[in-house]
Amino acid sequence: MPSSTTLIFMVIFCLESLAAMLQNGFVITVLGREWVRCQALSAGDMIMTSLAVSRFCLHGIGILNNFLASFKFCYHIGYLNIFWNFLNNLSVWFTSWLAVFYCVKISSFSHPVFFWLKWRISRLVPRLLAGSLVICGLSSSFFVIEQAVNLEMINSQNPHGNCTAAPAVLTSRYYFLCNVWFMWLIPFLLFLVSIFLLMFSLGRHMGQMRNGRPGPGDPSIQAHSMALKSLAFFFIFYNAYFLSLIISAMKITPIQSHWHWIREVLTYASIYLHSLILVLSSSKLRKALKTKFSDLCAASS
Asked: What is the pTM of this model?
């Protein structure tokens, strides 16, 4: 029986995951309706929709995975880990492509490479998304082999499927290092470079506007200042998520420990807050959110 502390964090984890699924479901609904209505999506909205779908499924798998692990259903955990690994890798890559896309579209660098990317980025987005799917699928196929070997080891050591007498389902150190370096670290570095370049470009442009049109109340300066604050929060929450991923993959704490659930709460809270910043930074999604709240208020009154 879990302790009271563990139960509290289990409830918090479940509530925040459901809230995140509702949030990503809202993004999918709004952008999906636009896709049906216009028969097309802009490149940025395409990445946002793909990211929302991957995170919606990631939170659902996360709930199932953690609760089945708590009740020691090892056989089912192995298969769920495969889907979680695939969706998590997709989410990491999609987040990086979104940062790259905004960096190229918004930044004001005069280097020829940026001019070429500004002209090509919208056409490259579908290929980048498809390439991410292929890469994550290949990574997950290797993960399937690792999980199959580990499940065979567990079943041979304990045919009753009781996790207490068998080792946890583990990936090999080789797979872990490859996954961290290629599937996590490369997109993370892309994200860092894109965010730093974009923040530098916005900061420089805001300084130029202040010199040309002094006054903190200027709408353009306020818009750029808000964009910089959003990027700062975007950077903090994504870094927290990436750090939580590394700690979680190292499996420092057992699943029954309340520290495991604290870590899970912090990890999925970072994803939720990161997605929230994306929603609040999009004028289209903010408008849809205000309309939804207005309809709910009108219906309740």
From this structure: 0.82
